[in-house]
């Protein structure tokens, strides 16, 4: 199946790797805008269904996909693309990027390729090396500095249905970031740019951990007062950690921080909130994960963040409580009570 790179003026040839809900939604948005888009699915049956029926049968079922959106399960079919969006789970990013580099080769055009991480997680296979964000993984595996991160409050089904959404694109190359911004933006999908890659990626990872706590609070039957407190103090944890890693504080009050934190903690659409809610109701983490078809990134980010904070003496009480519930069998009710009865202190970020 040859991929013809010919496009109309102003359009780009774009690959989206990962046919989950977010990858499919962004691929559909880009195709509707007129770009030549190829969506890579690991499962050949998913790719074939998208080609034949213009619908993703496992994710975003019932939402029609543009007929111009192409789908494949072969990485070599992506060789003609200029921009690559990676929307695979954090534990699969390194392997997928490595396979992609092998499929694309290192010809003259490789220096012009742009890579964008859509994954809101951290690599946890190398915890002894500290926090490893997805853009670092892509730089290492793809041998490129043209790597960006896209984050913000963006539930996939709403993007796929054309509902208003705003996100932030972070990268070191301002000129390339502006090009990507123009390529992505529509009247319903607004894109801001930032050069604070650390802050944008960290916000996307930490908010998932706080959402696990917010979900557990709901599972225990508590109200919005409790969730409001978790959101506010979760933002404090995010900001405190960001300061240690060199991120800018204002990034966490933007789309990738507060914006994404609010919707992930408040909405049942969030996988991380759902996992937390089920834990709060008494289900074990193993049985929850076995029943899920999509990945809750906070489950993995919790390990990395807890170890990093413990080794450096950082005070991240919500993260610590979530870790103890998920991995040490602690009671969600007891942990929430501990958070409420900590020693009195002055409110600070």
Keywords:
globular, alpha/beta, two-stranded antiparallel sheet, 349 residues, 14 helices, disordered N terminus, N-(1-d-carboxylethyl)-l-norvaline Dehydrogenase, domain 2
Q: What this model shows, in words?
A:
The chain has 349 residues and is of the alpha/beta class. It has 14 helices and ten strands. It has helices spanning 21-32, 44-53, 90-104, 134-142, 156-160, 174-184, 197-219, 224-245, 255-266, 271-280, 285-291, 297-312, 317-328, 332-340; strands at residues 13-17, 36-40, 70-72, 83-86, 114-117, 122-123, 132-133, 147-151, 165-171, 189-194. The strands form two sheets. It has an eight-stranded mixed sheet, with helices on both faces. It has a two-stranded antiparallel sheet with strand order 6-7. β4 (83-86), α3 (90-104) and β5 form a beta-alpha-beta unit. It starts with 12 loop residues before the first strand and ends in a 9-residue tail after the last helix.
At a glance:
This protein is α/β, with parallel strands linked by helices. The protein is built from 14 helices and ten strands. The radius of gyration is 20 Å and the shape is globular.
């Amino acid at each position: 199946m040859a991929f013809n790179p010919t496009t109309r003026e102003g359009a780009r040839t774009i690959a989206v790797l990962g046919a989950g809900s977010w990858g499919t939604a962004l691929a559909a948005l880009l195709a509707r805008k007129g770009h030549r888009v190829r969506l890579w699915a690991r499962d050949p049956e998913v790719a074939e269904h998208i080609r034949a029926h213009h619908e993703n049968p496992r994710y975003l079922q019932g939402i029609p996909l543009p007929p111009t959106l192409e789908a494949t399960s072969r990485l070599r079919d992506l060789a003609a693309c200029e921009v690559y969006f990676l929307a695979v789970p954090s534990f699969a990013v390194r392997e997928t990027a490595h396979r992609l580099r092998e499929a694309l080769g290192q010809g003259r055009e490789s220096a012009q390729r742009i890579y964008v991480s859509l994954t809101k997680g951290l690599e946890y296979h190398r915890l002894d090396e500290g926090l490893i964000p997805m853009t670092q993984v892509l730089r290492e595996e793809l041998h490129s500095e043209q790597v960006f991160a896209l984050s913000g409050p963006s539930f996939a089904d709403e993007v796929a249905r054309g509902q208003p959404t705003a996100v932030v694109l972070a990268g070191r190359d301002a000129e390339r970031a502006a090009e990507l911004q123009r390529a992505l933006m529509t009247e319903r999908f607004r894109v801001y740019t930032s050069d604070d890659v650390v802050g944008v990626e960290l916000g996307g990872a930490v908010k998932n951990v706080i959402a696990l706590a917010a979900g557990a609070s709901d599972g225990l039957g508590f109200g919005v007062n409790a969730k409001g407190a978790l959101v506010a103090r979760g933002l404090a944890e995010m900001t405190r950690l960001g300061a240690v890693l060199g991120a800018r504080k204002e990034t966490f009050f933007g789309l990738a921080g507060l914006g994404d934190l609010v919707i992930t903690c408040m909405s049942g659409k969030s996988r991380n909130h759902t996992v937390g809610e089920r834990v709060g109701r008494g289900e074990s983490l193993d049985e929850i994960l076995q029943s899920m078809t999509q990945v809750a990134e906070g489950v993995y980010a919790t390990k990395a963040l807890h170890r990093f904070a413990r080794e450096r003496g950082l005070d991240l009480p919500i993260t610590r409580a979530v870790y103890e519930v998920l991995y040490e069998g602690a009671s969600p009710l007891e942990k929430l009570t501990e958070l409420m009865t900590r020693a009195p202190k002055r409110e600070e970020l």
